[in-house]
Write a structure and sequence with these properties.
Length: 305
């Protein structure tokens, strides 16, 4: 691996924010050295990854902020990855001074990065995995990953997290119905945020029933009410997160699923490396004009040419 990349990784490991930011940019944009950087990552990380997901506007960023403040009081070192944030105001507004200050230190407490990875090669999840892997190389205790939506991509990337917080809000209506689509499987904790709204009790109650029906003798998914904007319920939430992290046994099944998908993509990309789509198109055009065209024979021949 080139000397400067080795140095970059060393600096990332020592907690240099600038180097980490550069490393992420290299991975995000697949710049020179992208592959070597990923190939040299270690797997003995201390950082725990906490996923925060939920519908747009549920208060995920506000919740992340509140959790940050909570854990900062315990001197935790934290990284935040906000994926495709539509309202990035929070982190800047509350932590602005800290972020600006910390740029000048080599051992800062918080690192924050937004990713706008929609449309990225290999899909959203492919990039988040790579970026999270780079961030894990830094000396963090916790990595918080905020993703919008309660859909397929969240189910896909759930394997990233050691603990997944699914954030719901009362005004989202009959959320519980949509929960059946995989969310129950990925949630380690349910948060009913905006509990200052009246209808929160109904949602809370329904989630409790759902969690209870799904419970095993030794575990039931906690359902926690929060008012993130007023720091209410945050201590309880942080305690629930810690409890899950501390009691984790083997790696979760969802991680195997994520990594096997990722591995499949990597193998696919490697296998396809020497296949030029433009050349394929040109040759296809020629073949189509040749009179005796058979698509299947053509593909086979092209692959072997
Ligand atoms: N009343 C009330 N408002 C809240 C609460 N938490 C967050 N909000 C407000 O809800 C709005 C959305 O909060 P965000 O934290 O940006 O929500 P988000 O889920 O990160 O939104 P996206 O990233 O855009 O999906 C903001 O105006 C917050 O101030 C809460 O507990 N109660
Ligand atoms: Mg947000």
């Amino acid at each position: 691996m080139p000397v400067d990349l080795k140095q970059l990784l060393d600096e990332i490991r020592r907690g240099n924010f600038r180097s980490l930011a550069r490393g992420i940019t290299i991975v995000e944009n697949e710049l020179n050295g992208y592959e070597s950087l990923l190939l040299d990552l270690k797997e003995n990380h201390q950082a725990k990854v906490i996923g925060i997901t939920g519908p747009p506007g549920a208060g995920k960023s506000t919740l992340v902020n509140a959790l940050l403040r909570h854990w900062l009081r315990q001197n935790k070192k934290i990284a935040v990855i906000a994926v495709d944030p539509s309202s990035p105001f929070n982190y800047g507004a509350l932590l602005g001074d800290r972020i600006r200050m910390s740029e000048f230190y080599t051992n800062p407490g918080i690192f924050i990065r937004s990713l706008a990875t929609r449309g990225a090669l290999g899909g959203l999840s492919a990039k988040i995995i790579e970026v999270t892997d780079i961030v894990k190389e830094g000396p963090f205790d916790l990595i918080l990953v905020e993703t919008v939506g309660v859909g397929q991509s969240e189910v896909e990337i759930a394997g990233l997290a050691d603990c997944t917080i699914v954030t719901l809000v009362p005004e989202a209506g009959d959320e519980v119905q949509t929960l059946k689509a995989g969310i129950m499987e990925i949630a380690d904790i349910f948060v009913v945020n905006k509990a200052d709204h009246e209808e929160a009790d109904g949602l809370f109650h329904n989630l409790r029933i759902l969690a209870h029906n799904k419970a095993t003798p030794d575990s039931e998914i906690p359902v926690i009410k929060t008012v993130a904007s007023e720091d209410k319920g945050i201590d309880e939430l942080a305690a629930a997160v810690t409890n899950i992290l501390d009691n984790q046994k083997n790696f979760p099944e969802k991680r195997l699923h994520l990594l096997s998908e990722k591995c499949w993509q990597l193998i696919q990309a490697t296998r396809m490396k020497n296949i030029n789509r433009d050349r394929m198109r040109d040759e296809l055009k020629q073949a189509m004009n040749s009179g005796s065209f058979n698509l299947y024979a053509f593909s086979k021949q092209f692959l072997n040419s």
